[in-house]
Amino acid sequence: MDKVKWNQVVIRHALPFGAFLQSWDWGEFQKSLGREVERIYRTTAAGTVAAQAVKIPLPLGHFYWSFSKAPFGDSSLDDQIEFLREELGEGMFFRLEPKEHPG
């Protein structure tokens, strides 16, 4: 997905007060710091899932994935997390900031 389409998804689905943390430009800034960035998007009958993940290094060669103000979309949080696991199954953990909270 290119910059224009990605930012349109962010505008349509992300939280307004944190959308810039999911923008293409924020991802490119993170890359300029030497971090790996993955942009994840899927639309199914269950809804849309999108997130920009930043790989954060940890000691001893480990890392985790950070999702600032994400994942987002109109699918359930459980579906969003499952999709993220499928796409980025590696890493010590995910740091999520979803717009809805389970429970």
Notes on the structure:
The chain has helices at residues 3-13, 24-32, 77-87; strands spanning 37-44, 47-57, 63-67, 94-96. The longest helix has 11 residues, at 3-13. The model has no long low-confidence stretch (mean pLDDT 90). The chain is α+β, with helices and mostly antiparallel strands and 103 residues long. Helix 3 links the parallel strand 3 and strand 4. Helix content is 30%, strand content 26%.
Write a brief caption for the model.
With 103 residues, this protein is of the alpha+beta class.
Helix content: 25-40%
Task: Give me the side-by-side strand order of the main sheet.
Answer: 1-2-3-4
Radius of gyration: 13 Å
N to C succession of SSEs: HHEEEHE
Give the helix tally: 3
The gross shape turns out to be globular
List low-pLDDT spans. Answer: none
Overall SS class = alpha+beta
% residues in beta strands:
25-35%
| Average predicted local confidence, pLDDT | 90
* Biggest beta sheet attributes: 4 strands, mixed
Pick out its properties.
3 helices; 4-stranded mixed β-sheet; 103 residues
Q: How are the secondary structure elements laid out?
A:
Elements: H1 3-13, H2 24-32, E1 37-44, E2 47-57, E3 63-67, H3 77-87, E4 94-96
Parallel strand pairs: 3-4
Antiparallel strand pairs: 1-2, 2-3
